[in-house]
Amino acid sequence: MARFFDVHPENPQARSIAQAVDLLRNGGLLAYPTDSCYALGAQIGNKEAMDRIRAIRKLDDKHHFTLVCKDFAQLGQYVEVNNMVFRNIKAVTPGSYTFILPATKEVPRRLMNAKKKTIGVRIPDNPVVQALLEELGEPILSSTLLLPGEEEPMTQGWEIKEALDHVVDGVIDSGECGIEPTTVIDYSSGEAVIARVGLGDPSRFE
Predict the structure, then answer these.
(1) Span 129-176, pLDDT tens digits
(2) How many other C-beta atoms lie within 10 A of the C-beta of residue 134?
(3) Which distant-in-sequence residues (6+ apart) come within 8 Å of 21 by Cβ?
(4) Is the pLDDT confidence value at 79 over 90?
(5) Where are any strands of DSSP class E within the chain?
(6) 87's torsion region: left (phi>0), alpha (psi -120 to 50) or beta?
(7) Partners of 143 in the beta sheet?
(8) How many Å apart are CA 36 and CA 177, to the nearest integer?
(9) How far apart are CA 182 and CA 83, in angstroms?
(10) Does the pTM of the predicted model rise above 0.85?
């Protein structure tokens, strides 16, 4: 059974955050809210948890996983960003955007897109996620919690616990979460390509 963490959305309790991070460090898979919608998260080096995310979502090897980062200092360790791209990303983060960029050698090969050697990165505007990242000290390997055959993600922690109780190890509930995923901007070619329109305003990348 998954552990259930009832966390305040603006002032997350340090004890609950520490317990959730311990779960990640011990190889667990966590369902957690973001500034867009719920995500499945694990530690970067946790291959088993990554395979579990693939199984839950029925993903193929073309899927871009996302490294959810605390800030630009952390993001810059995992992706290559030139000055123009840096300025464009800086202008809209933290926020509901995911950026696909060339991965650095810090990213395990299995996490990259097999063909393009890219990875998704984002800096969310959410106190609960920021608290998790502060406690963990590294990005969270993540994927939107959208189940196969469903058009919209689940929005409530309790319903996620009911549905995924035996396939995840923990669920954080901090109240109603959104249904719209991030806007995805693909910089793998060097130019901004809007790969998915979501919660973040795409107009500045058009």
Answers:
(1) 999 999 999 999 999 999 998 888 888 999 999 999 999 999 999 988
(2) 12
(3) 132, 135, 136
(4) yes
(5) 3-6, 30-32, 39-42, 66-68, 97-102, 118-122, 140-144, 170-173, 183-186, 193-196
(6) alpha
(7) 40
(8) 7
(9) 23
(10) yes
* The amino acid at 38: Y
For tokens 């605390």, the residue is 70
Cβ count near 177 (within 10 Å): 25
Structure tokens at 84: 């123009």
C-alpha to C-alpha distance for 26 and 42, rounded to whole angstroms: 10
Closest CA to 37 of 140, 149, 161, 174: 174
- Sign of dihedral through CA atoms 68, 20, 14, 146? positive
